[in-house]
Amino acid sequence: MNTHYGNFIDGQWIRSDDINRNINPSDTNDVIGEYARASASQADQAVQAARNAFPRWSHTTPAARHDILARAGTEIFARREELGRLLSREEGKTLPEGIGEVTRAAQVFTFMAGEALRIGGERLSGLQEGSDAEVTREPLGVVGIISPWNFPIAIPAWKIAAALAYGNCIVFKPAELVPGCAWALVSILERAGLPPGVLNLVMGSGRTIGALLTTHRDVDAISFTGSVPTGRGIAAACVGGETMKRMQLEMGGKNPLVVLDDASLDVAVECAINGGFYSTGQRCTSSSRLIVTDAIYDRFIAAVMRRLDTLQVGHALESSTDIGPVVDERQLETDLSYIDVGRNEGATLRWGGDTLSRKTPGYFLQPALFTDVRPDMRIAREEIFGPVVAVLRVKGYDEALAVANDTEFGLSAGICTTSLKYATDFKRNAQAGIVKVNQSTSGLDYHLPFGGRKGSSYGPREQGHYAAEFYTIVKTAYSSAG
C-alpha cells in the first residue's frame, strides 16, 4: 500500500482525497507515494496562516533563525544518501547527481544560516544639522515560492532558506512531478523548530495553486523558477492585478558553448558532454548550442561522438548509468518532436535520438546530436529541455560571439579557448548572467549570485548575499536630537 503524504498548513499535516501518484520515470511500475493535492481554499488557508505568523516571525532574533536553518542543513546533509535516492527515483537524475544535489541543499541552508547573522545596514549623517539617518533591511512579508521539477530540492532550498533567513513567511508550491523532495524538506524544517504558519506546503496544480498565489492580496512577493510561458503569465498577474507584487522569475535558456580553434579538445568535449547531456539535458543552464570554429570542427564532432558511445542511458539508481530517463512521458514527447523538427528543417542527426528499452519500463532516450544547424532553425532557438544538442559551424571568434548572443535568452554562456584575449573579451561581451571559461555552462557555487538576462530572468538575483535584494525591503529612517 502506498504511503499518503499530506499538505502542511499552519503547522498541521492535512490529508486529502484528491491525490497525485508520484511515479518513478526509471520504472513506471514504481509508485513512490500518494501526495495530497491542495484545493484553492486550502491554499488560501495557507496564505492566511503565513500572514498571521509573520508579525512574530519577522521579529525573531537573527540567532533564532540561524539555529533553525543550521539544524535543517545538518539533517539534510546527514540524510544525503537517503534523500538523494528519493530525488533520483522521482526526477530521474543518476544517483550521484541526486546525492550531489541534496548535498548542495544542505550547503545552502548552512550558508544562509550565517546570512541571518550578517544582515547589514548603514548609519549616515543627515544633511540638516543634528540629523542622522539609518538604512536598514526588513522582511517583505508573505512570499509565494513556486519551484520546478528539474532540481526538486536545491532550488526550493535556496529560495526557502533565503526567505526564512531574512524573516519572511512562505507558501511553497512545488512542481507536481516531484512532491517527494518538497515534502521531505518541509518535514525537516518542521523538526528544526519553525513555528506554525511560517512555512506552508501546498502541493497541486499550477492552474489552481499558482494562480491563487499570484493574485492573492496577502501574498507580497512571488519567487518562481520554471518555463517561459508560465513565467510571463505570472509577471502579467503580479503587475497587471491590483496587488503589484514584487517578483523574481527564473525561466529558460538556450545556452551557447563556444569552442575555438585553439581549445584543448579534451576539455571542450567534456564541457560539451557535461553541459549538454548530463542530467538528461534537463537543466536551464544546459549547453544546448555548441558553436564551433572551422579548424577544430570535424575533430570536435568526431570526439564528441566517441564520447557519446561510452555513455550508458538507464535506470537512475543503477551504478553503471551515466544518463537517467527523461522526467515523464510529456517531456519525452516534446524531445522527440524537436528531433523531428530538426530533421525536417534540414539539420543532420549525427548521433542518437532514439527511444530505448531497458529492464524496467521508463522514459529512456538516447542523447541526440545535430550538425549542419543554422542559427535560424528552431532547434537552435527554442528551449527543448532535453538531451538534444545543436552544433553550429562558424568561421572565427567574432562570428561565434555574434551567434552566441543571437538569442532571446541570456542565462549561461561558455567558451573553450587557451587565448587570454578571447576569454577576456567573451567574459565582457557575452550577453548572459553567468559566463564560464573552459567549464561546463551548468553548475554554480552556492555563495554566488544566480540569474540571467533578457528573456531568461526578471528581478533580483538568487543565492548568496545577493538574495537580500529580493527578500528584503530597504527602509530609510531619520532622527534628530530633540
How would you summarize this macromolecular structure in one to three sentences?
This protein has 482 residues and is an alpha/beta fold. Helix content is 40%, strand content 22%.
Task: Write the topology of this structure.
Layout: E1 4-5, E2 7-9, E3 12-14, E4 19-24, E5 27-36, H1 40-57, H2 62-78, H3 80-91, H4 95-116, E6 122-125, E7 131-139, E8 142-146, H5 154-165, E9 169-173, H6 179-192, E10 199-201, H7 206-215, E11 221-225, H8 228-240, E12 246-250, E13 256-259, H9 265-277, E14 289-293, H10 294-309, H11 329-345, E15 348-351, E16 355-356, E17 364-365, E18 368-371, H12 378-381, E19 388-394, H13 397-405, E20 412-416, H14 420-429, E21 434-437, E22 457-458, H15 468-471, E23 472-480
Parallel strand pairs: 1-5, 8-9, 8-11, 9-10, 11-12, 13-14, 13-20, 14-19, 18-19, 20-21
Antiparallel strand pairs: 2-3, 4-5, 6-7, 7-23, 12-22, 15-18, 16-17
Helix pairs in contact: 1-7, 2-4, 2-6, 3-4, 3-6, 4-5, 9-10
